Amino acid sequence: MAPPTPVPHPAAALLDWVAADACTLPTADRPLRVAAFDDLFATALRGIERPGSPGRARLLLAGGGDLAGRVQRLADAETACCSFFTITLTPLTTQGAGDDGTVLALDIEVPLARTDVLDALVGRAERLRRTAA
Hints:
By secondary structure, this protein is an alpha+beta fold. About 40% of the residues lie in helices and about 20% in strands. Strands 1-2-4-3 form a 4-stranded antiparallel β-sheet. A hairpin with a 6-residue loop joins strand 1 and strand 2.
């Protein structure tokens, strides 16, 4: 079994996640945003789907009753600073969700010119999911 892939420090992650021209979030706030995504990925991510278009991804999330509010706040904050993101949160059936209770689909879409940003976000989510497992 291979050792887990190390996850870079949140500040370093920004260099490979979003190009400076793509984000209007103040530099001092960026590590906090990355940490919020890292926590979400490590605790709630259950699956990643990449439907037909390279500019789309679906993250399947599961968690407690506060999950929907937590994810919606994070999605709203991200689209406020990176307006090229279109993020939709869809509640899915909770049947079979086990102790997690809430199951959500977080659909993310970007223009084709920003697929590198989506790819970096999905790549980070995959690494954190493997590390948390």
